[in-house]
Structure to design on (286 residues):
């Protein structure tokens, strides 16, 4: 859906409680930003997003610039404070294809520059297609790259810290450019390390083969190493698949899974079955 199709007519205020960099100085800046939401009617479920409204003026006379960010907290709120949510934000820059000039991403730089006490405008929540299943016997196959980890952080907190009755397999394939880029798995923030003790949980990492050349994360190879278990999970009727990150991630997965399934046609058929059964969900970032 185009961002212009989202209803932003009823924004609400949020105040920055905390903003911490969760990557070391020698790699790309990613911040974990906690917000206090002053709206008694604001309720969300894991996997949903909020719109951040950056005040203008902007190009074409727009009063606000809007960007979607996945909520990285469970429905019980950040640190079990239901008035607080967290966002995982990478400070982005873009190269103008014509001039070659480097420009800061509007929303990401706006958010990364906010300090505790600053007020921002939010809209939403949006998205009801990327939600965790209710059945505790369901298997979760989660595949994410970069800040695509945000909704999966919310999923894991919900099923292990709040429900505590999860029996299905939970597999997280997580990609980062290099080891320093791992989010929520490092010495600056290791929230997700806590779930390594869960019998049903396993995390599998993937990195870029040439991080200094900005080559994409080789998620395909990580999935291929675990192809037997991945395919076994996909064939199980109780498995739900979630893919989050940059849009080229789905292409990587399609290529690998075509080999695992025996042909591109066989994988396309199986993937369509998952989609029709509401067990294949994607969340891609521009």
């Amino acid at each position: 859906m185009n961002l212009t199709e989202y209803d932003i007519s009823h924004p609400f205020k949020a105040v920055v409680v905390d903003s911490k960099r969760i990557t070391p100085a020698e790699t790309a800046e990613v911040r974990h930003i906690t917000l206090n939401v002053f709206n008694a009617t604001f309720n969300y479920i894991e996997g949903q997003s909020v719109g951040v409204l950056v005040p203008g003026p902007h190009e074409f006379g727009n009063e606000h610039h809007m960007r979607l960010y996945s909520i990285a907290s469970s429905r019980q709120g950040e640190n079990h404070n239901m008035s607080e949510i967290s966002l995982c934000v990478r400070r982005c820059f873009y190269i103008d294809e014509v001039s070659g000039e480097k420009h800061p991403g509007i929303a990401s730089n706006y958010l990364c520059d906010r300090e505790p006490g600053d007020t921002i405008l939010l809209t939403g929540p949006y998205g009801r297609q990327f939600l965790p299943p209710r059945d505790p016997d369901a298997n979760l196959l989660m595949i994410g790259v970069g800040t695509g980890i945000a909704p999966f952080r919310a999923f894991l907190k919900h099923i292990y810290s709040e429900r505590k009755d999860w029996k299905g397999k939970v597999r997280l394939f997580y990609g980062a450019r290099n080891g320093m880029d791992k989010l929520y798995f490092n010495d600056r923030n290791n929230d997700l390390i806590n779930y390594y003790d869960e019998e049903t949980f396993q995390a599998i990492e993937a990195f870029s083969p040439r991080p200094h050349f900005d080559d994409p994360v080789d998620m395909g190879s990580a999935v291929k190493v675990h192809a037997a278990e991945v395919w076994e999970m996909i064939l199980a009727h109780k498995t739900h698949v979630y893919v989050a990150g940059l849009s080229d991630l789905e292409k990587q997965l399609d290529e690998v899974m075509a080999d695992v399934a025996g042909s591109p046609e066989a994988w396309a058929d199986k993937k369509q079955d998952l989609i029709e059964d509401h067990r294949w969900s994607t969340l891609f970032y521009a």
